[in-house]
Amino acid sequence: MNTDVLLREVVERLAGLGPDRVWRTVRAPGGAVLAEGTGWDEDGLPEDMGGVDFTGKSVVDVGCNLGHHCFMAARHGAAQVLGIDMDPEVTACATALAKLYDLPQVRFETADALTGIGGRTFDISMMIDIIGRGIILKGKAGDFLDAAAALATSEMLHTMRPIYSLERDLDCPAGFLERLYPERFIRDGRFHLLEFALDRLNADWSATVLTPEADLGHKYKYLVRFTRR
């Protein structure tokens, strides 16, 4: 299939999705913007992928949306990349984008990471801008951390906001979060998400914050790499 045909297919699929389901800006191979993203760019991975070595590795991106970070991993040398998302129209569009970008090592599946993807594992799992307010209030932060860990044999990449204000950020009533998470992570009117994640994964994983120290004061979410012990 030639590039013009693929480009028309992508444009049509993007139009069908509408702006609310496009999280990162989508570009044509030449750089022209096909759809503006509605997410926070700084919540994603930096262009150098935080210095993580993807060369020759297998990667899974949980909650991949249209595959922005899947394509970045492939361009940084990943041998195989699987993006999973629960929206079949999104994964169909992402598949068309992979063809447009001529990245055959990138595939997409419609799946729920919490119910598993057939026991498959990868060198690296990524969960970029997934664990946030909605996941926290559903009491699912631990479940998503566990799911990412089950998929990875050696490394995980997460972006997460380290601390949430119960009143300003989560807008939850007093005592609500204590029913979902251990009380030691809820103090001074805040939920300490990064601390919770480090504790949850501590038995099997060590962690390094990859966000440069100079950026820690103003980044909305931090990039954290977990390495299996």
From TrEMBL:
Pfam family name, one = Methyltransf_31
- Where would I find the Methyltransferase domain in this sequence? 56-124
Q: Could you tell me which Gene3D superfamilies the record lists for this protein?
A: Vaccinia Virus protein VP39
Under the heading CDD domains, the entry gives:
AdoMet_MTases
* Protein name in the entry: Methyltransferase domain-containing protein
Organism taxonomic ancestry: Bacteria, Pseudomonadati, Thermodesulfobacteriota, Desulfovibrionia, Desulfovibrionales
